[in-house]
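TA notes, week 10

Several of you asked for a full example with nothing omitted. So below is the full record: structure tokens for the whole chain, then the designed sequence directly under it. When grading your own attempts, check the secondary structure regions first.
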């Protein structure tokens, strides 16, 4: 057993977006720690496959089809979990998607979908689970997956970036509310840096060249520089168990971005991208 995860061992973990990437890895690692895992995702095939893997390794896993953009689906998820397993030890509001494009070219439906998954999915995950977690009266954990993107800005990734700023602010307020109510719920903001997952491969992208180019650059960056989701999960779960608020997979990157953001705001500076980053957003002109 890993050190520092005693608080989680033997408990119940509910993880949204558990069919792929970071969520699937968190579920696998939570099961390794002896947790009963509930895998919630909009892709039934993916969660069934991850659950089968966990079960064949001797762990407990319950796949539950859930669309986190639907508040009632999160209420139903909470009912299912409490009926099946009783108390929840850990809720990770992790499901999130990328949507690329210049703000005014992204269709309204795509805007709504991104904000409903990335922001409302977290809010309503908390609304559905927190009352019963608090009423249980003992130590439990809520972790919301933000991003280092919550500490910066990036054109053509606007829906994602603004949603992660929102999830970070939500998590900070939630932390304070738990203190205000003296509730025994630890709140964490998970701040992943680059993790090699399918998130950009699956992203909706508008037709313009810079959005496509940015998607390719980001896909390549995650594949070549990202840590594995397994490594990310092994970094994240002990920090949640330790009750930390800021949970980073790339501590130096997180600190540098926080520092830059703080300086930018303190100086009331105009938005600006470093020239090399701006250049990377401009596709090569076609040959000939
Ligand atoms: N990969 C990275 O580098 C990185 C960096 C920072 C933050 N994050 C965040 O980590 C979280 C997980 O991302 P990932 O990289 O593992 O992505 P991923 O694409 O591998 O996994 C996301 C999962 O969410 C599920 N999902 C999508 N819409 C859903 C919905 N409506 N309801 C329920 N589930 C839904 C998908 O089916 C998928 O299984 C996201 O919140 C993402 O923003 C990722």
């Amino acid at each position: 057993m890993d050190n520092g995860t005693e608080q989680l061992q033997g408990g119940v973990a509910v993880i949204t977006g558990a069919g792929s990437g970071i969520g699937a890895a968190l579920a696998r690692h939570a099961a390794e720690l002896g947790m009963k895992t509930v895998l919630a995702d909009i892709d039934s095939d993916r969660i069934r496959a991850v659950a089968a893997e966990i079960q064949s390794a001797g762990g407990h896993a319950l796949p539950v089809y859930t669309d986190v953009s639907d508040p009632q689906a999160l209420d139903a998820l909470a009912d299912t979990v409490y009926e099946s397993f009783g108390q929840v030890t850990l809720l990770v509001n992790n499901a999130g998607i990328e949507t690329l494009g210049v703000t005014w070219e992204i269709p309204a439906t795509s805007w709504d979908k991104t904000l409903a998954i990335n922001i409302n999915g977290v809010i309503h995950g908390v609304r559905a689970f927190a009352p019963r977690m608090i009423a249980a009266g003992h130590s439990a954990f809520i972790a919301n997956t933000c991003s280092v993107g919550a500490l910066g800005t990036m054109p053509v990734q606007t829906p994602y970036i603004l949603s992660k700023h929102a999830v970070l602010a939500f998590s900070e307020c939630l932390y304070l509310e738990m203190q205000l109510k003296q509730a025994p719920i630890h709140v964490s903001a998970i701040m992943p840096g680059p993790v090699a997952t399918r998130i950009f491969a699956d992203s909706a992208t508008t037709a313009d060249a810079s959005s496509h180019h940015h998607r390719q650059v980001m896909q390549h960056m995650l594949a070549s520089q990202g840590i594995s989701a397994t490594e990310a999960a092994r970094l994240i779960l002990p920090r949640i168990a330790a009750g930390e608020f800021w949970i980073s997979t790339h501590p130096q990157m997180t600190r540098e971005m926080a520092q830059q953001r703080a300086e930018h705001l303190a100086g009331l500076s105009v938005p600006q991208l470093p020239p090399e980053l701006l250049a990377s957003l401009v596709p090569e002109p076609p040959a000939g």
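Residues 17 and 95 are 4 Å apart (CA to CA). Use that as a sanity check on your answer.
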